[in-house]
Amino acid sequence: MCPPKWNATQQFCYIFIAHSYTWSAASATCAALNARLPEVPSETENNFIANMLRTHGAHSGWLGMEDFATEGEFVWATSQELPEYTNWNSGEPNALVVGDEDEDCVEMIASSGKWNDERCEHSIHRFSVICQKE
Ligand SMILES: [Ca+2]
Ligand SMILES: [Ca+2]
User: Fold this and answer.
1) pTM over 0.85
2) What is the mean pLDDT of the chain?
């Protein structure tokens, strides 16, 4: 059973927060709700998250995935485990370097549900956070 205002799948509860945050601020926002940024085990969950983003008119949303420990090796943030399921956009992750920042965090693009590594401090046009919990 999910709390009021949370949306349920068979595996998780999700809530949409209409605010643009950096990855670390988004992660802290979810942690404050005893939740986390979405970690995606399957296409079913991926589609559900993408639909939530589109329903709310969001451009994209952060996922709980980063390559802080080893550049180019993206892992789920809470478990630090390599993903079994991925849905990278064509040519991603490309680890683009912009200024002093490499792309170490992962966003889901709402229109396609595809993933892109992005600068963690980039919050422009990231009009949303989705949090996930058991
Ligand atoms: Ca990187
Ligand atoms: Ca990228």
Assistant:
1) yes
2) 93
Q: Find the ligand nearest to 90 CA.
A: 2
Element (H, E) at 131: strand 129-133
Neighbours of 99 (CB within 10 A): 7
Contact indicator for 58, 49 with CB cutoff of 8 Å: no
Q: What distance in angstroms lies between residue 66's CA and the mean position of ligand 1's atoms? A: 8
Q: Is 15 helix (H, G, I), strand (E, B) or coil?
A: strand
Sign of the C-alpha dihedral, residues 38, 42, 43, 48? negative
Average pLDDT for 23-46:
97
Q: Could you say which ligand is closest to the alpha carbon of residue 72? A: 1
pLDDT digits (tens, 9 = 90+) for 50-86: 999 999 999 999 999 999 999 999 999 999 999 999 9
CA of 2 to the centre of ligand 2 (A): 33
**Maximum alpha-carbon separation in the chain:** 45
The rounded Å distance from CA 1 to ligand 2 centre is 36
Is the separation of the CB atoms in 52 and 14 below 8 Å?
Answer: yes
Say yes or no to pLDDT of 126 above 80.
no
